[in-house]
Each structure stands twice: as C-alpha cells, then as structure tokens.
Amino acid sequence: MRKKLLGLTVAAMALVAGVVHAQEEKKVTIGVSIPAADHGWTSGVVFHAERVAKLLMERNPGLNVIVKTSPDPASQANAVQDLETQGIDALVILPTDPDPLVNAIKEVKGKGTFVALVDRAPSTNDNSVRDLYVAGNNFALGQTAGEYIKTTTPEAEVVVIRGLPIPIDQERQDGFDKGVEGSGVKILDRQYGNWNRDDAFKVMQDYLTKYQKIDVVWCQDDDMAVGVLQAIEQAGRTDIQYVIAGAGSKEMIKKVMDGDKMIPVDVLYPPAMVGTALEMTVANFYGQVPVRGVYTIDATLVTKENAKDFYFPDSPF
Amino acid sequence: MTAGEDAVETKSRGRSWRDIDLRAVAPFAALALLLIVGALVNPNFIGINNLANVATRSAFIAIIAVGATFVISSGDLDLSVGSMVAFVASIMIIFMNSGAIADPGLMLAAAVVLTMVIGGACGLANGLITTVGRIEPFIATLGTMGIYRGLTTWLSQGGAITLREPELQALYRPAYFGYILGVPVPIVVILAVTAVAAFILYRTRYGRHVVAVGSNSDVARYSGIPVNRVRTIAFVIQGLCVAIAVLLYVPRLGSTSATTGILWELQAITAVVVGGTALKGGAGRVWGTICGAFILELVGNIMLLSNFISEYLIGAIQGAIIIIAMLVQRSLVRKS
After folding, report:
1. Chain A: nearest CA to B292, how far in angstroms?
2. Where in chain A are the domains?
3. What percent of chain A has pLDDT over 70?
4. How big is the A-B interface in CB pairs under 8 Å?
5. A188-209 pLDDT, tens per residue?
6. What contacts A295, CB < 8 A, 6 or more positions away?
7. Residues sharing a CB contact under 8 Å with residue A193, sequence separation 6 or more, in sequence order
8. Å from A316 to nearest chain B CA?
9. How far off is chain B from A49, nearest CA to CA, in Å?
10. CATH architecture assignment, domain A138-267
11. Residue A212: strand, helix, or coil
12. Do A223 and B255 touch (CB under 8 A)?
C-alpha cells in the first residue's frame, strides 16, 4: 500500500513537473522551404538555414525547425504542402521562383500561419502573401561597387561582366550606373558571363585582347571572379588595378581578409539572409517583438577590417 | 532502320564517294570565311595571341567532340558528357586533396591514371546500359547525365570543389598554361588526340566496324561484326576523351562546381555535325570535328571583340552564323 502510494506521488509529481516544464518550453514548429543546393549561392542558403536552425533549437528547447530543400517550383509547392500537414506555426520560404509559388504560400498563410518570405518577391508582395519580407538588395550591390570605384579610382576605365539576362542582373547594372554617376569612370564594355566561372574566363580573355588598357573589372559575382583572376594572371597583364566581385563566398572573403591586391573588397549579397528571416520569425514567437514588415539587407562593403565577420570556412560557398 | 532507307543511303553514299575530298574540306572553308570576317571586325582578332587563346580554350569541347565522333558515327548519341566532365573532374580534385600520396609528382601521376580509369568506366557504363540494357542511347545517357550531375552536386554540396595543395597546383598548372616548342600544351594535346583518333577511325579494323555499324547495324550484324561490342567501345572512347579534357580542365581554374560543363554535350554534338559527320551515323570526320569545335569558339570570340553587336543579340547571331557555316558547306558539296 505504502509502495503504491509512493508510486502515485512520484507519478503525480512527475506530471506536475511536466506541466510546469511545458509552460517553460513553448512548443513552436517552423518549416523552412528553400531551393536545393544547385550552385554556389543556394548551397550557402542551405548551409546557413541548417546552421541557424541548429543554433535556434539549442537556444529555445521547445522549438522545432524543419528544413526542406526543393529543386524547382513544382516540388517546392509540394514541400510547402507537406510542411503544412505536419502542423507548422510559421513558414520561412526562399522561393525557387516566386510567382508560381504565390498560391501555395497564400494557402498556408490563410490558415493563420506566420509567413516569412526571403530574397525573391512575387509581383504582388504585400501582407496578403507574407508577414515578413527579408530582402537582399540587388540595386545596392551594384551601387556599392560603383561608389567604391568612384571614390578609389575616379578616372578608371572599367569592363563589366554581367550575369544572365534576367531582372536581378538589370537591377545590379542600374545600381552600378547610379554609383559611378558624375565621376570620370568610363565603362568600356558589358558582356554576359552567365554567373559561370568558365564563361567569365573566356569573356575576360577577350576583353584583354580587345582593350590594351583596363583599370578595373566589375564582375558582380564571386564565382565569375575566379575565372577573371585566372585570365588576368595568364595574360600577365599588370594594368588591371583590381577586380570587384560580390555575394560573399568564403574564397573571396578570404582574399579580402589576406589583403589580396586584386580583390581589395567584396560586396555582400549574403546567403545567410535566410538565417536573418529565421531569427526574426523565432523572435516573433519567443520574444514577442514586432517583426512584421519589410527588412532590406544592405549590400555591405566587405573590407580587410570587417571581413572576418563574414567568413564561414565550413560553408561550401 | 528500314530496308528502303538503307537503299537510299547506300545510293547517296555511292554518289558521295567522288566528293569525299570536298566534304572533308568544307568545314575548313567555313573556318577560313570566319577568320576573314573576324579580321574585318577587329584587327586584334587575327593576332597570334588571340587565335592561340581561342584554340586553347576550344580544347575541352574539341577533345570531347573527337570522342563524340566515334559515338555518333556508330549511330549512337551521348548526352552525358558535360555532366561527366564535372563528375570526373570533381573526383580528380577530391583525390588530390585527400593527400593519399605524399610526393606531389607521384600524386599527380596517380590522379591522372585515376581520372582516365573513372572516365573510361563512366563511358563503359553508358555503353553497357545502351547495349546490354537495350535502351535508346538518347534516354540512357539522359539518365546518366542526371546521375553524373547529381553526384557532382552531392560531392560539392552544391558549392565548389577546389584544389587545395599549392605545390600540386604549381606543378600541374603548365598542363593548361604551358608551352611545348612555343605551342600551348592544350593545342598539342588536341592534335595528338585527333591524330590517334583519325588513325583508329580510318586505318584500323575497329574504325571500319564503327562506320559499318553506324551505316546499318543489321547488315553489320549479318556480316559478323560484334555490333554491341563496337558500340560499347565507342562509348568507352568517349569516356576516355572526356577524361583527357578533364586533365586539361582541372589545371585551368583548379576547381569544379555543380555548374561545370553545363550544356557542353550540345556544343560537342554541334562541333561534330559542323565538322561534317552525319548525325544519323555511318560517317566520321575527326579532323572536321576539331575544326567544328574551333569554329564554335571563334564565333563567340568574334562577337565579343566586335564593337557594334549588342550583348543581347549574341545568342541569335551565334545561331545564325552556325547555320550559315553549314549552308556554305552544303553548297560546296552540291556544286561538285
């Protein structure tokens, strides 16, 4: 009898403790839907989503973050549906292609789920689609690079290597033009390098043939910078003062950190922005702070002084 | 292939015997035309430096296309070569990064052997799936294209795989950037590979079998040619050519990524066809193929060096030039 009583007490105590515990640990499930790692930048997105998810789960014991990657809009729509059936309180999504996914996102949002949209916005990007929008700034990526050239080498003759003919690339070009506006910077040429190392190598080789004197190369992307540097080295040309890339890959950040003369700075378009969205979403639930709205991430100029803040040696990107 | 088609083909082949020289010359005529156009566009174009640059960087597509000439001549098609480049190159770099062998020279030698073996094995896989599995080569290699690409993405976790050992890099760099008797190494390699390939295709029994199988596999089978073995070996040759291209590719940037070699299969096939090999099989022109690869690379180069072509129109004009080059060839052949 006594034994039984003891057992009952223990059980009751455990129950009470459990309830108290549960109150401390608010249960929140967040679904993260991102593109599959098919090139440098998206591989960074996957890396940082998983890194920040792990950090946040350690910090908030009741939090569960599910990260799902999808190669294309159709499978991402399915992934969003799967996440929804698992019962999520919030969805953090970086769409492979935003417009085809609007309906899938609205479906989730319609059920009262908190939605944080990252980087790529659909044509109608208001609070009927998402609660929070964390945006990179393509215009500023170009502008920051342009302004750096304007201040360091105001009379430079610049060749530009573009990405692919899509709106993101055009925004960067417009930003760049705004950045160099009013200086003596002369743009010799703009050609597409498809955000690809090998193509950028070819374009740079041809630029070197075409122009006897080039001061600065703006190639707006760290992957392309790899090909550009190799082409310059092979030609043995010494007239090129520096190359400005962008995104923030570990390879280029390392060069900035080491004081490489050819890569004095890098312009940030960080894949880690998915982590920003995740942190803010968690703050909405645990910190109960207002996070709804639009948060635009600066295209920070990475210099030798601050480079270590943006260096992730373990990231694949 | 039906009997009717076969008859037509035999007839046209019979007629083309007399034109054979002109057909082989046609791609070179198109090349000469392009060189003239290029010189008019920009005086720097005809400089030895520029032409050496273009020839050197056409090496990857040219060498892959030499392999594709065998596959296409034997009546098959290999769509997986671009992905295969990325996959084989990734394995090579990962192996060199592993530090399994301390001595850099030995390490490089081992890496070269490994690359050739993996390339050959990838080709063998394509060949066996096509012949033993009796799957259309288009579908079989579309499948392996996805497999090789996916494995590369997985190995690199979507990022880049970069050669880390500076000592190895320094040792290996001349394989792309070096010179032999004043000629860039990749050009020497193109010529050597093509010479060997031409010998195999034109002077050996195996070469004649390839063409026979491509012309009509049924007739070839009745004549006692081991059709499946001939086709499989053609795929292995393709794999070895991809491996040689990789040996030149890795020292250039010292790294691969999930986007390495994307669409190279189409460029290789285009080079083969521009070079005068029929896409339906039955005739192979190895020297024409490398001429085709050079033409493709030249077209892009001329576009970039010109000052009057909008960067938005480059794709359209490239397409038009390829068609015009083919028309020039056709008209030459018809006149004779």
Report:
1. 18
2. 23-137+271-298, 138-267
3. 92
4. 91
5. 999 999 888 889 999 999 999 9
6. A132, A133, A134, A135, A276, A280
7. A161, A162, A163, A199, A200, A203, A219, A221, A224, A227
8. 5
9. 14
10. 3-Layer(aba) Sandwich (3.40)
11. coil
12. no
A133 forms beta bridges with A117, A294
- Sheet with strand A63-70: strands edge to edge: A63-70, A28-35, A90-93, A114-118, A132-135, A293-296
- Other CB atoms within 10 A of residue B124 CB: 15
Query: Contact A316/B156, CB-based, under 8 Å?
Result: yes
Q: Which residue of B has its CA nearest to A45?
A: B158
Task: Give residue B305's pLDDT band: very low, low, confident or very high (50, 70, 90).
Answer: confident
**Spatial separation of the C-alpha atoms in residues A108 and A95, rounded to whole Å:** 14
CB distance B258 to A39 below 8 Å: yes
Q: Are strands A114-118 and A90-93 parallel, antiparallel or unpaired?
A: parallel
* Contact state of A40 with B262 under an 8 Å Cβ cutoff: no
Range A23-137+271-298: architecture per CATH: 3-Layer(aba) Sandwich (3.40)
- pLDDT per position as a tens digit, B5-25: 444 444 444 444 555 566 778
B177 contacts A197? CB cut-off 8 A: no
Asked if the Cβ–Cβ distance from B156 to A315 is below 8 Å, we say no
Cβ B153–A37 below 8 Å, yes or no?
Answer: yes
Task: Specify the pLDDT at position A190.
Answer: 92
Look at residue A20 in the predicted model and tell me its pLDDT: 46
CB-based burial, B135-152: b 16+ in 10 Å, e otherwise: eebeebbebbbeebbeeb
Asked if A255 has any chain B CB less than 8 Å from its own CB, the reply is no
pTM of the model: 0.77
For B168-221, how does the pLDDT look when each residue is reduced to its tens digit (9 = 90+)? Answer: 888 998 999 899 998 999 999 999 999 999 999 999 999 999 999 999 999 999
Mean pLDDT score across all residues of chain A: 88
Q: Which band of pLDDT confidence, cut at 50, 70 and 90, is reported for residue B4? A: very low
Q: What is the ipTM of this complex?
A: 0.72
Distance from CA of A252 to the nearest CA of B (A): 13
Structure tokens at A28: 């929140």
Can you name the residues that pair with B161 across neighbouring β-strands?
A: B256
Q: Which residues pair with A295 in a beta bridge?
A: A134
At residue A287, the pLDDT reads 87
Integer CA distances (angstroms), A148 to A109, A189, A265, A301, in order: 41, 19, 9, 9
